[in-house]
């Protein structure tokens, strides 16, 4: 199959081992994405266990800063593939870069955050490298001999966990957001940024961006919020979500929802938390009018503290909640919101 990208020059060091992280940048802040920081943390742990190097690769336009930040977060080397034509994700351009790099440095393990981009790119890369990939992993570790990677992921809608072992090399996995502890910048960490000389041939591009619609984000990003206030079908409609939105704003948090309110158009689909939505792990998660289906729990079970409000005392959500209130949210939330306002005013 023809290649849309050619890597020129001889910048690569001959390696037959190590861990490679395929990183992404936060397109809003132009910095290393939070999801990539978590994967770097996981990769650092694996590399230390193997006594091998940790590398990262960044593809795109203006990705030098995220590459340098990955060094400060623990990477020994960061590969930089920058070109104006790489500013938009195109598998015909991104895939040859990763294939060529992987064949040159021969990493033992290749990791990436479980994002929409990597869900598309990683299976393609695994096919090119004649190996397999396990997606949406919540835990990865080396076996007792350190010879194989054990990859754990939820199956059957989150009702069970499966552990996979790959007999081919490299071992490839995408890591669910929030699974790894976010790597704190290690300012004394020493590493090198290796710039790849990329020559693109747009003749092989089969995808063209004709339009872009950006939805404005008001407030805190759901995946990064320390507090998430989510509502379910029990909220009853659009008006009910205004109470939740108010509480989220007071606590400097984000508004979330289970799937039914999103399907019914009560809130944006971008607020959906769960197996088919976003994965969150805030310090506090309010589940209001949410029954607690496994599909929803899969997206928020890593929350440090879960507060459930439901008028059904038998709701499944109470089995997972740290604090539970049995009652109608219409009666519970207004006085709670007022008390929170008073407490915050006292602090000021």
Summarize the structure.
This protein is of the alpha/beta class and 348 residues long. It has helices spanning 34-50, 64-72, 91-105, 116-128, 240-250, 259-263, 294-297, 329-347, and strands spanning 5-8, 19-22, 25-26, 31-32, 54-60, 77-82, 109-113, 133-137, 139-142, 149-155, 160-165, 171-175, 192-200, 227-231, 254-257, 284-288, 305-310, 323-326. The protein folds into two domains: 5-204, Rossmann fold (3-Layer(aba) Sandwich); 222-347, Rossmann fold (3-Layer(aba) Sandwich), CATH 3.40.50.1220.
Task: Characterise the protein shown here.
This protein is an alpha/beta fold and 348 residues long. It has eight helices and 18 strands. It has two domains: 5-204, 3-Layer(aba) Sandwich (Rossmann fold), CATH 3.40.50; 222-347, 3-Layer(aba) Sandwich (Rossmann fold), CATH 3.40.50. Helix 3 (91-105) crosses helix 4 (116-128) and helix 5 runs parallel beside helix 8. 43% of the residues are buried.
């Amino acid at each position: 199959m023809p290649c849309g990208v050619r890597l020129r020059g001889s910048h690569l060091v001959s390696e037959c081992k190590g861990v490679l992280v395929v990183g992404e940048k936060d397109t809003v802040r132009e910095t290393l994405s939070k999801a990539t920081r978590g994967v770097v943390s996981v990769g650092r742990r694996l590399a230390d266990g193997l006594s091998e190097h940790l590398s990262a690769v960044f593809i795109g336009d203006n990705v030098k800063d995220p590459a340098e930040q990955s060094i400060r977060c623990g990477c020994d080397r960061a590969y930089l593939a920058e070109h104006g034509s790489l500013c938009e994700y195109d598998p015909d351009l991104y895939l040859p870069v990763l294939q060529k790099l992987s064949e040159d440095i021969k990493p033992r393990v290749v990791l990436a955050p479980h994002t929409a981009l990597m869900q598309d790119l990683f299976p393609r890369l695994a096919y090119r490298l004649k190996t397999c990939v396990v997606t949406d992993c919540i835990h990865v570790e080396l076996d007792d001999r350190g010879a194989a990677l054990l990859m754990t992921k939820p199956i059957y809608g989150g009702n069970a966990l499966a552990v996979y072992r790959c007999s081919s090399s490299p071992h490839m996995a995408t890591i669910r957001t929030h699974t790894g502890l976010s790597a704190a910048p290690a300012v004394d960490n020493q590493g090198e940024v290796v710039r790849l000389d990329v020559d693109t041939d747009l003749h092989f591009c089969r995808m063209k961006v004709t339009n872009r619609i950006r939805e404005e984000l008001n407030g805190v990003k759901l995946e990064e919020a320390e507090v998430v206030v989510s509502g379910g079908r029990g909220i009853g409609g659009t008006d009910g979500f205004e109470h939740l939105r108010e509480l989220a704003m007071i606590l400097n948090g984000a508004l979330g929802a289970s799937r039914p309110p999103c399907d019914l158009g009560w809130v944006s689909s971008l607020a959906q938390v769960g197996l088919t939505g976003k994965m969150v792990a805030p310090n506090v998660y309010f589940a209001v009018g949410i029954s607690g289906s496994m599909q929803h729990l899969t997206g928020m079970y890593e929350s440090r503290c879960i507060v459930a409000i439901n008028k059904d005392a038998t709701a499944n959500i109470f089995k997972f909640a740290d604090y539970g209130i049995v009652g109608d949210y219409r009666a519970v939330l207004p006085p709670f919101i007022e008390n929170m306002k008073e407490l915050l005013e006292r602090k000021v």
